[in-house]
Amino acid sequence: MTRYEYAKDMYAKIGIDTEAAIEKLSALPISMHCWQGDDVVGFDSKEALSGGIQTTGNYPGKATTPDELMADIDKACSLIPGKKKLNLHASYAIFENGEFADRDAIEPKHFAKWVAYAKERNMGIDFNPTFFSHPMVKDNLTLSSPDEEVRAFWVRHGKACLKIAEYFAQETGVPCVMNIWIPDGYKDIPADRFAPRARFKKSLDEILSIDYDKEKVYITLESKVFGIGLESYTVGSAEFSLSYVNYKGITPLMDNGHYHPTEVVSDKISSLLLFNEKIALHVTRGVRWDSDHVVIFDDETKEIAKEIVAHDALDRVFIATDYFDASINRVAAWVIGLRNVQKAMLTALLTPHAALAALQDSANTTKILATQEELKTYPFGDVWNEYCSRCGVPVGESWFEEIEKYEAEVLSKR
Ligand code: RNT
Ligand code: ZN
After folding, report:
1. Residue 126: per-residue pLDDT
2. I need a surface site. Which of 16, 169, 203, 267 has the fewest CB within 10 A?
């Protein structure tokens, strides 16, 4: 009997079909953020990263050209099991032959290379307007700016991105999630909390006033509680974002680094699923704050996965990663984080949710706790290894040898 066969039997005894779990997980797309590869720099400006987010570290070998970034994404994908979608930011527009278009004038053609890349790999594409790291961000404000020139510029950017999102969906045949996140806010106590939010609402209304195919593009709005230099007030707070989403019938996006430290996204998912057809997630890891550390296989990531699986919402939740660590090998950072998202999902798929829920309904909370704790020592690793091997990616820590080789042969030569 192989280790997998043994594990399969053990899970079968508690009513879990490991084959079905592997099959479900193989079909679940995880949207991989391109910006881990170059510290959120992009190709369209020489501006430093702004918007209250921060990368720290200067590990050698970061991608500085589209070809390098694409090669690094390929390397990472070859070491991550499961289905991937590509998540791009507008700042990753590719300009050729000396051509340039500012953020408010970008067009689908500036992303044609990404489309060709995704099509060759059978990937869908998600998209993000880039409302940061640009000279038109004035006083940390974009869509909520009182300066009409600034506000209008970013509205045009949003509209331009919507066209590009439609183009991605059209070309790849996979719906595109277009996520709006603005960094707007104030470092210290604002005199007026209302007007910036009213302007943000107006700007979103303007962007969404253009016609788009709602079957092809899902617009999501990402809330946030604070940013570096924006500690006292963010325009796109949780209440603003949820209310706006409900008012317009778009999709909410929760980033698990964007709440007060004792709040957990795992506890928010069920409420949002009750009132929204679809929801979206940015899976990250906050260390004390929204620090965007590489996702690890920790309790909260598992709990998030559990909420998706237990409510049978695999096809209602858009799962994306969002973190950026410049202090370690960037390709490895992708691999570690995405393998951990996959592990969390697999753990959830190997949990007898219905049986546990029945215990809750019969008030047998003692048995719930006992079962949950016993499940922690089930042979999860053997199912995980089987899954990796069936996906054709390295099993166990052997993937790291590939990273060392890639670093020696490619990254260190940059
Ligand atoms: C920032 C948000 C946002 C960004 C990316 C780069 O706090 O999480 O999603 O990380 O758009
Ligand atoms: Zn995010």
Report:
1. 99
2. 267
Give the three-state DSSP class for 63.
coil
Q: What band does 45 get if pLDDT is binned at 50, 70 and 90?
A: confident
Using CA atoms, how far residue 348 sits from 153, 217, 264, 411, in Å, is: 44, 28, 17, 35
Q: Give the pLDDT confidence of 70-128 residue by residue, as tens digits.
A: 999 999 999 999 999 999 999 999 999 889 999 999 999 999 999 999 999 999 999 99
Ligand 2 centroid vs 282 CA: distance in angstroms? 5
Q: Are 364 and 96 in contact (CB under 8 A)?
A: no
**What is the reported pLDDT for 155?**
99
* Ligand 1 proximity of 282 Cβ (cutoff 6 Å): yes
DSSP track, 242-259: HHHHHHHT-EEEEETTSS
Confidence of residue 55 (pLDDT cuts 50, 70, 90): very high
Q: For the whole model, what pTM was predicted?
A: 0.98
Q: Residues 274, 280, 283, 285: is their CA dihedral positive or negative?
A: negative
Q: Which atom of ligand 1 is nearest to the CA of 52?
A: 7
Pick 30-349's CATH classification: 3.30.160.340, 3.20.20.150, 1.10.10.10, 3.90.226.10.
3.20.20.150
Query: What percent of the chain is modeled with pLDDT above 70?
Result: 100
d(CA 335, CA 331): 6
Q: Is the CB of 53 under 6 A from ligand 1?
A: yes
Specify burial of residue 67 (Cβ count, 10 A radius: 0-12, 13-18, 19+): exposed
CA of 301 to the centre of ligand 1 (A): 18
**In whole angstroms, what is the distance from residue 388 CA to residue 110 CA?**
35
**Per-residue pLDDT at 257:** 98
Is the Cβ atom of 325 under 6 angstroms away from ligand 1? no
Per-residue model confidence (pLDDT) at position 46? 81
- Residues 180 and 250: their CA atoms lie apart, in Å, by 11
C-alpha 170 to ligand 1 mean position (Å):
25
Domain locations in the chain? 30-349
Mean pLDDT, rounded, for 232-247:
98
